[in-house]
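Think of the structure tokens as a kind of shorthand, similar to the way a musician reads notation: each symbol stands for something richer, in this case the local conformation of the backbone. In the example below we present two proteins back to back. Begin with the first one, reading the sequence and then the tokens, and try to describe in your own words what changes along the chain.
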Amino acid sequence: MKKASGFYLAAVTLVLSVVAIVAYAINCGTAYFGPSGMNGLVMGCLIGGAVASLLAMFVNGILGDILTIIAPAATIYGVMNMLNDRVAGIASIFTFEMNAQNMADLTSCIVALVAGLLAMILGIVTAFNAIKKAN
């Protein structure tokens, strides 16, 4: 199988998605964001987007094309729900509760959001690129 640029973009998207998943899981265990718990919808969408990105790299035909659309769509939905869950806490930390512990807890949140946003953008770009070169 000859790989085109879309294959490598999908691989980078997969890595960024995994980073977002791990950072979100870490963030859900922090002292500040831990009590709100882990949103299953966020985790499910991020994992679904990562799996779709992985499968898109190896599945041929129309199913592969559909997977390249599902991957960024799932990631977008997951990241937007993560942002929805965390925006009040982020604003509260920056306005009223700024201390070393809360800023450390905020770091994993920001890493998860940035990695998710980059995975979204690269996933959209991947959908417009070929995964395999034509014979």
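Once you have a description of the first chain, move to the second and do the same.
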Amino acid sequence: MSQADIRMVALGLRAALIDDARPIMMRDDAGGGTTRLSPGMIAAPDGLLPMVLRAGSAIWHLATGHPYRLRLVSDEAALLGQRVEAIAGTSPLMVVLSAIEALDQVSGPDGIAAHNLPRLEARIRAEAESYWRPRANALDAVPPMPGPASATLSPGAG
């Protein structure tokens, strides 16, 4: 995706969060409290968007068998020390929808608990890898039917 597509993802996610109107909270492990975050901070490529998209990519992986790819680059000025530079593997709409699903999965009665996104990502990624891992052909495990190998069923038999 181009920088314009990343901007479209950020604007789409921000608009969805504004429309949703649930509070978005982030626990401050150092101070022990929680901070309310703006939709703009969640959707900013140099804000929490890298964390949201990693969780969204895990959701996409579970749904499709393939995560979308993120290129995150170090950025000392970014909130988490990195910013989104590129996204590949699906459309901007699917990126936004999977990000919204990730945020919904870390929501509770008090709002969206953004600090739970890394734990969600790890859990969903493990689920996806387990679900989509290659398996032996299921038909290989089916025992052959008894009877001569040349036996066939004729119409109306039975």
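Compare your description with these statements about the second chain. The two ends are 59 Å apart (CA to CA).
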